[in-house]
User: Fold this.
Amino acid sequence: MSWEIKKEMSSPNYYKIDNFKFECGKYLNDLNVEYVTLGTPEYDSDNNITNAVIYLHGWGGSCTSVKRLNPMIGNGKPLDLNNIFIISPTALGSPGSSSPSTSIGHDFPEYTINDMVNFHHHFLKERFGIKHLKGVIGTSMGGFQALNWAVNYPDFLDFLIPLATSYQVSGLNYANFKFMNSLIEGDPEYNNGHYKKNPERVTRMVSEFMYMFGLSKEYYRYELKNEDIDNYMQEMGLEGSRMDANDILWRNKAAMKFDLEDRLSEIKADTLILAINQDQYFPPNMDAIPLSKKIKNSKIVLFDSIWGHIGTDDMIKAENDIIDFFNDLKG
Assistant:
């Protein structure tokens, strides 16, 4: 994490939403939202915040994943904290915010990407009184949400930056989520979600499975020895053993229902699509390029990263294009 972000980012804060209705029709009270902020809000004459940008993290992230924007954040950079106020909340369904593991377990409603967006919409309006965002930035599953923001609330944001993401879950990604869920649901210790002790054996396996797609094929082949892969898979397994099985299952089900293909023409926000050529989860020819053709007046930037899907640190390669995008917004 850069010194700039360390200096500016607050410790996680928490806000409680009194009552929230899920798309399935169920209600829950006292839902927690975990979040961090960077920068300082600016206000208009009616005391409305005018410089807010929301960042939305990926599948296994949290509010602190805003550090992935490090190449874009800093004095004189596209996200200059002297004039931008970044709000980074933890998603509905991820620990820190309300999720099955931090709430009512198996009885937690099955939520959708729409629910995740509406959850944060409630939060922004209730906690900060925000009536309009400068923009929404989302990475991976956060990109699903970012696109959903632009469709559901087309007049609520000026710009949209989906990064390493897609407009639908289909094909291999759908199969990956389905396989992960099958592993969990077929494990005897899972007990249909009514376990007293998290089934760590299977959540470890799920995490090891996901490890195979996070980096580029070139990185696995040429940058790692087999013993390195053994060690990294063991580390990922240990990390996965700490993840709750119901949290994983619910999050995957939300992703598997995601499909905005027929609604992308409704997006009004100026859009910059950033994609990584070596991304195994979202190869640009299948995801970012078709997405750019479906969003009017969008711009697309492809860059290389040996790190594959997690190569946001290489976003610096697209810095000039990002600067041009923000300059055009000002113009």
Notes: Residues 3-168+261-330 form a domain with the Rossmann fold fold (CATH 3.40.50.1820).
